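Throughout our pipeline, every protein is held as a single compact record rather than as scattered files. The record that follows is passed on verbatim for readers who wish to inspect the format.
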Amino acid sequence: MRVGPIEYTIHRDSGLLYVRAEGHLRSSDILAYLEVLDGDPSYRVGFHVLIDLRGVDHYDLDPDDIRTVAAANAGFAEKSPPGSLALVSPKDAVYGLLRMFQALSEGQNLDVQVFRTIEEAVEWLEVPADLIAP
């Protein structure tokens, strides 16, 4: 399913939600994705989530946007708790924003880790690597 620059695939047999963003990313895109996912009957509580931001080449996200996204994600996670959430970006600026998201997610019922490589995230989630875009 595509929502703006964000596309997600649900791998039910593996219990994985794979989310991939490319191009220009805004907080409104992320909030729209969460709204669509909230209504998707294929998503199940307990799925591991891998958010792949390797393809993001421009973003309009500042610390206030990250706080807004973290709050929206916390609300979603309360209703439909995921297993573990892995966030991936090799780009320093995006990686820094992801670490901020991770810090804001502490104390919630959510296990969030940030990685620079997709291989590290796949290993941490213990999901099949062939489900992830190269």
